[in-house]
Amino acid sequence: MAERHVPGDRLSAFLDDELGDEDALRAARHVADCERCLGELAALRATRDALRALPSLQAPVLTAGVQARSRQLARVARRAKLIVAACCVPVLIGAGAYVLGGDVGEVEPATELFLVEHLGRTGGGPVPTAVGGGGR
Amino acid sequence: MSRPSHAAALLAGLAVVAVPLIVEPMPSAPVRELVAGQAAGEPAGEPATDPGAVDGVLARASAARASLPREGELVVVGGSETGPSISRMEVAFGDGGVRIRREGGTEVGRVDGQGSLRSSPTLLQVGGVEQVPVSSERLHAKYDAALGAPLPLDTGLAVAVSLSERETGTLRETLYADQVTGPIVRRETYGRDGAPVRTVAFTRLEVAERPPSVPRARGRDVQAHEVTTADPELLREDGFVIPASLPRGYELTTVLEVPDAVVPTLHLIYVDGLYSLSVFQQQGRMRSTATVGASELRTPTGGAVWRWPGSEPRRIVWSGDGATFTALADTPTDELLDAIVGLPTDPPPSILGRLDRGSSRVARWVSPKDRSTT
After folding, report:
1. Which of A38, A60, B208, B360 could anchor a disulfide with B69, C-beta 3.0 to 4.6 Å?
2. Domain count along chain A
3. What is residue B225's predicted lDDT score, i.e. its pLDDT?
């Protein structure tokens, strides 16, 4: 019974010498006895050689006008960056001053001590002391 | 002391005091009677303006308060922009001391030179608390005094003393001295616009068996402080602001220092003969959370201060020139705001002010000269 045909992807790998030794030997034996696979291998080789024979493409050369325009765009971009930076600096300084200018006071009025002091020293006259109401 | 009938004064008093002060909720019956029962600064009969007679009444009141042990119920009715506030407290005085026990537990007093305040869970004790002398000369320099005929009050017949600002002729205070035993049993305070701003009155006052005692710790934490007299000149050199007088005739009488305070702290006492104004000055800016619950007010020069609505004694706090100030006084608020113009006050908080403060702070940091001094 004839061995099964070599699939196309394996033939392509055989052509590019990408199969392992054992697989490559088995494929070579089969192709030598199988006209169909031999023909297919020949077609693959022809396609590969044709592709390799194509001339290499080169990127189009920019004209002097396009290059000048490109440089101008780059200058505008740089200027825009400078303007943005110039605007950001005062904004950052202002934000920093705003943060630093926040109320960082740390003194808490000693309410109860002050109340005792005030009432103790000033409540001794003839007038009855006003104590109460809201607040702390 | 008997409870007099004061039906005649009730209607007149209601129109002047009860309407502006008492809105809702209505106070209990004794407070209604208290507010309604006042004569609203119009003592009956022909007023006597002899300063000697007024001094006699006030001196007798002062002596009675210091020497005659009494206890009773005191009600304070105050008005503010947020509505009336009513406080009721038990008061005992005599033998040079006084103790005020407020409904709700707070107790404050002074006995034998020791001031104390008990509020759960702490007992605050302050030693060396000597009273500021009362000067009748200052009183007569600023106020015109007039004696009225006796009026029936809750505590009995009382002689009215009306005190009007000489400069404006505005009635500021009416005091009622018990005709039999002498102590002031009621005081009514008026704003510059003539509206009543506070009434302090005994609804009950009886002879006590013994003088008031100092509040006891009863297992609570005790914070003890000692406040000492200080030399104003030395303190000025240390950067404290100590004006010899404040606007509206307030003169400096006492300079005290709290040596064990967290930050250097002063207590300045100014008097005008009728009112006493305590100014506490702490070095350093006030913490912004210190004004939670307070209303922002403006001094006549535009400074920003904060007052707790209805607080008695009136208490306002503010920052000025890097210091924190607390003023406590029994003066009407308008008078208080006028007086503190003589002290530094920062403008109200604003974005520009904050930017300026931040820039100055950075400038101080980067300036070698300022860095060396801070």
Report:
1. B208
2. 2
3. 77
Lowest mean pLDDT segment, chosen from A84-93, B61-70, B259-268, B314-323 = B61-70
Residue A58 has pLDDT above 70, yes or no: no
Predicted pLDDT of residue B341:
94
On whether both A18 and A44 belong to a single domain, the answer is: yes
Q: Are residues A14 and A46 in the same domain?
A: yes
Residues in A closer than 8 angstroms to B358, CB to CB, are 96-102
Minimum distance, in Å, between the CA of residue A118 and any CA atom of chain B: 6
Short-list B84, B122, B92, B93, CA closest to B105: B122
A90 touches chain B (CB under 8 A): no
Gap from A76 CA to chain B (nearest CA, Å): 34
Query: Per CATH, is B7-93+145-204 categorized as 3.30.1380?
Result: no
Closest C-alpha among A34, A60, A124, A42 to residue B96: A124
In a domain, A47, yes or no: yes
What local confidence, expressed as pLDDT, does residue B324 receive?
95
- Reported for A46-55, long-range contacts at CB under 8 A and 24+ positions apart, including other chains, are A48/A15, A48/A16
- Whole domain around residue A71: which residue ranges? 67-97
Q: How near does any CA of chain B get to the CA of A87, in Å?
A: 18
Contact A133 B85 (CB under 8 A): yes
Domain limits, chain B: 7-93+145-204, 227-356
pLDDT of B147 > 70? The answer is: yes
d(CA B292, CA B167): 37
Burial class for B10, CB neighbours closer than 10 Å (0-12, 13-18, 19+):
middle
Is domain B227-356 given the CATH code 3.90.1140.10 in the classification? no
Tokens of B128: 């060396």
Q: How far is B300 from chain A (nearest CA, A)?
A: 23
| Rounded CA separation B337/A131 (Å) | 19
Mean pLDDT value across residues B40-57: 65
Residue B267 to residue A114, Cβ atoms within 8 A: yes
Q: Please check the confidence at residue B243 and state whether its pLDDT lies above 90.
A: yes
Could you report the predicted ipTM of this complex, rounded to two decimals?
A: 0.76
Residue window 59-78, chain B: list those with CB within 8 Å of chain A.
59, 61-62, 65-66, 74, 76, 78
- The predicted pLDDT at position B46 comes to 55
**pLDDT band at residue A74 under the 50/70/90 scheme:** very high
For A91, name the nearest residue in chain B, comparing CA atoms only: B355
